[in-house]
Design brief:
heterodimer, A: mainly alpha, ABC transporter involved in vitamin B12 uptake, BtuC, two-stranded antiparallel sheet, 14 helices, globular, disordered C terminus, B: alpha/beta, Rossmann fold, 3 domains, six-stranded mixed sheet, 25% strand
């Protein structure tokens, strides 16, 4: 049966659609823009996509539980400032400052999670408040001004290489491998999908729904914290303005990758493809000296087209399913 | 009546979807003042036919006539304009609006550019009054019970001067009393000369209500019958297409060992001092009207709603149940009333739906063993005769019967020994109902205890060993199922008991 063959299985994977779209976009950009194919440009794309794609993992997980997280951008602003203050003001070594920053990030996730899962305030509201509050906190550090030239070692965290490949490559692969395993092969991952699919059924099946929601927000915050450390390393600085609007790009990456805002559907690996689509388009537009306003407009259109295609595909899918069911005299 | 020409007439209605002929030359005649049942198992073409009549689908061939004139029903709005009112299974009410606003949705009476609220309220009250529905027009629909919403849905449908009223399983969510009220309402409509097309899986009520019936199978009419020769067993065998020995294949497996006991259970949401025992191998039925507190008792036992007093025990060991996790660990299971909203994960196929309550059983050190899960799923698919497609398809694509079996399989896999089944056969067809009954027999044969909640009285009496009568949240009496009558089950208040006890 073709259904069980490797190709058959591959064709049914949700990420195949976005992947085809990505390849098409790459082909179009490559054909129109010779500079796109230069090795240096590929390096740029890889570095650009690394931060967004890691932050977007967290957004995807929260979206799969049926929630939304608007706070990563401000969290990044706050955490780059924390890292800067730890290094500059307190003179902490990177080996202390970075873990401490990640830990504070998790703490912010715990706050979001408790307010959503245990207090019962809608995720949109809690993280909208976080978007504002974390930014406010960032402005209380270092007199509200950016801190530059933190440490030459810090730059190495982002610009260093290992076996000839830039370090961010390893971070991305590691993060995606880890969270793919968690989401698809652990009990916790299964519970996250169950809560997003049907919260009431999850509760009646003995799943601790509140705990699952809390953990999703902690994952999201941890991903944002990693993003903050990478951004600080790349720019060797901390600033209350870093991370602005990255939460929307991260949500866009998840949605373009096929995650459903209704919850229960979406895959971490598809979000990587979604992030690549966004970054490659931006890169292509940059190389052709398209203005920022037009870029923004284009990304907006991509989100609409991606979700539109998905809606259209599920309608087609439903009628194909109806056809197959009728054929096999089933249902 | 039969001499007159029909009010509505369908002739040779055919509708093909890719790969399936859903309706194949269906002809039905509906006279004025006739209640006509449309029967058949799921997938026989009933839904398609209703959608054609309500303008959702267009037939490939065939004609629809009203009083002899051909009418084209090209859209739902246009079909309503032609006098076809449809009450679909899924409610189409807006929960945040009032009853009056819902009845006049999309056609609010106006004075100039503004909505004429007093007139809308007055006319809504007239519609409700004419149907003897005691619901205030300014109540918010979301605060009404499911049964009341059903009545509002019907009021909305007939407020447009319909000559053909179609009801798709209107009684599914209703208790015995509400069904009686609904039947009265339909008979009044009938006296006004409306044709009614009635779809139901509850054959007992069909026989008592309708004048005639059409049975569909595989998109074709297999039989048409008039009131005098409607016979439930015959209908069932025609629908299923084979002879069925026993509509309720009850096996008696009850032992004398008490497996589960509830003592003095009370909750804040109306359960009052409920005590009962269930023996190993026994089906203990909970009988009573809708809203009598049966579902609340189930939820309290399962740790969904907190107990204010009382305790439950299994094998004589008192359990501390604070949440469903505790209940599941102790061996309890709840198959909820509404499998769509509370039971199934529509983003999963069969396997993950079955393992959801016992994920540790398919877990290694860290990771889930998906191959084991697939084997488990295949096991239950074979054992419970679930459609093989369940292994790879989202459960939303399966029939109600298959879905219900998957929810029950979840609890078998969780090693539950006391299963609470809340309306387990609601909205599934006869063949699947019998499969669920056989499954109940298999459970009790293993020595498990089943607590059965059902608003289908025949089913409850036939499948239970003993029945506890619930009124206003209290258990007023437990008696052998054979001695329970419909009268016991329809009385709603505790006071009435003194009458029949006397």
């Amino acid at each position: 049966m073709s259904e069980t063959s490797f190709l058959g299985r591959l064709a049914r994977q949700e990420f195949v659609g976005p992947l085809i779209a990505l390849l098409l976009i790459v082909v179009i950009v490559a054909a129109t823009t010779p500079a796109f194919l230069e090795p240096q440009n590929f390096r740029n794309i890889a570095l650009q996509v690394s931060i967004l794609s890691i932050v977007a993992i967290g957004s995807t997980i929260v979206i799969i539980t049926g929630g939304i997280d608007l706070s990563p951008g401000s969290m990044i602003a706050l955490l780059t400032m924390c890292l800067a203050v730890f290094i500059k003001t307190y003179g902490l070594s990177l080996w202390v400052a970075i873990p401490l920053t990640l830990l504070i990030g998790c703490g912010l996730g715990v706050i979001n999670g408790i307010l959503v899962a245990y207090v019962g305030i809608p995720a949109f509201i809690v993280t909208l408040a976080g978007l504002s509050a974390f930014k406010g906190l960032a402005l209380t550090l270092n007199g509200g001004t950016p801190a530059f030239s933190l440490s030459p070692e810090l730059r190495e965290v982002f610009y260093g290489t290992f076996l000839g490949l830039p370090l961010p490559f390893y971070y991305v692969v590691g993060a995606y491998a880890l969270f793919t395993i968690i989401m698809e092969h652990t009990r916790l991952g299964r519970e996250i999908y169950a809560v997003g699919g049907n919260e009431s059924a999850a509760r009646l099946s003995g799943i601790n729904v509140a705990r699952v929601r809390l953990i999703a927000f902690v994952f999201a915050a941890l991903c944002a914290a990693v993003g903050a450390v990478l951004l600080s390393s790349r720019l060797n600085s901390g600033s209350p303005n870093y991370g602005t609007l990255i939460e929307l790009q991260a949500i866009a990456a998840a949605v373009v990758g096929g995650a459903s805002l209704a919850g229960g559907r979406g895959r971490v690996i598809s979000t990587l493809i979604g992030a690549l689509i966004i970054i490659v388009v931006q890169n292509g537009l940059n190389l052709n000296a398209v203005t920022t306003s037009m870029q923004s407009l284009t990304i907006g259109l991509i989100i609409l087209v991606a979700v539109g295609v998905d809606v259209w595909r599920s309608r087609i899918g439903a009628s194909i399913a109806g056809f197959l069911n009728a054929k096999t005299k089933e249902v | 009546m039969q001499d007159q020409s029909p009010l509505w007439e369908l002739e040779g209605i055919t509708k093909t979807f890719p790969g399936v002929r859903a309706n194949d030359g269906i002809s039905i005649r509906l006279h004025a003042g006739e209640i006509h049942a449309l029967l058949g198992e799921n997938g026989c073409g009933k839904s398609t036919l209703i959608k054609i009549l309500s303008g959702v689908h267009q037939p490939d061939a065939g004609t629809i006539r009203r009083r002899g004139d051909v009418v084209q029903l090209t859209s739902p709005i246009q079909a309503r304009g032609e006098g076809v009112a449809t009450v679909f299974q899924e409610f189409s009410l807006a929960p945040t609006l009032t009853v009056a606003e819902n009845i006049f949705l999309g056609r609010y009476p106006r004075r100039g550019p503004l909505v004429d609220w007093p007139r809308m309220k007055r006319e809504a009250a007239e519609v409700l009054g004419s149907l003897d529905i005691a619901i205030a027009p300014d109540r918010i629909v979301g605060t009404l019970s499911v049964a009341e919403q059903q009545l509002v849905e019907i009021a909305k449908a007939i407020s447009i001067d319909a000559t053909l009223l179609i009801l798709d399983e209107p009684s599914t969510a209703l208790g015995e009393q509400e069904i009686v009220a609904l039947h009265q309402l339909l008979r009044r409509m009938k006296d006004r000369g409306v044709s009614i097309l009635y779809i139901s899986h509850r054959l007992d009520e069909v026989v008592s209500l309708v004048d005639s019936a059409t049975i569909l199978k595989d998109g074709k009419v297999v039989s048409t019958a008039n009131g005098t020769n409607l016979d439930v067993d015959e209908i069932v065998s025609k629908m299923v297409g084979e002879d069925i020995d026993e509509h309720y294949p009850k096996q008696k497996n009850a032992t004398n060992t008490v497996l589960f006991s509830a003592r003095n259970l009370s909750t804040d949401n109306g359960v009052r001092d409920v005590s009962f025992d269930v023996h190993a191998g026994e089906v203990y039925g909970l009988g009573g009207v809708i809203g009598s507190g049966r579902t609340e008792i189930a939820r309290a036992i399962f740790g969904v709603d907190p107990l204010t007093s009382g305790k439950v025990s299994i094998d004589g060991k008192t359990l501390r149940i604070r949440n469903p996790q505790d209940a599941i660990r102790a061996g309890l299971a709840l198959v909820p009333e509404n499998r769509k909203f509370d039971g199934l994960f529509f983003n999963f196929n069969g396997g993950p739906n079955m393992t959801a309550a016992a994920l540790d059983k398919i877990r290694g050190q860290f990771l889930l063993k998906k191959r084991t899960e697939a084997d488990v799923a295949q096991d239950y698919i074979d054992q419970l005769e679930i459609s093989p497609a369940a292994a790879r398809k989202f459960v939303s694509l399966l029939s109600g019967g298959n879905q219900q079996k998957i929810v029950i399989a979840r609890w078998l896999f969780a090693d539950s020994r006391v299963l609470i089944l809340d309306e387990p056969t609601q909205g599934i067809d006869i063949g699947a109902k019998i499969a669920v009954y056989n499954l109940i027999n298999a459970l009790t044969a293993r020595g498990y205890a089943v607590i059965l909640i059902s608003s289908d009285h025949n089913e409850l009496i036939a499948m239970s060993d003993r029945i506890g009568i619930i009124r206003e949240g209290s258990l007023v009496e437990t008696m052998p199922a054979a001695r329970v009558t419909h009268t016991h089950l329809v009385q709603s208040s505790a006071q009435e008991l003194t009458h029949d006890a006397a």
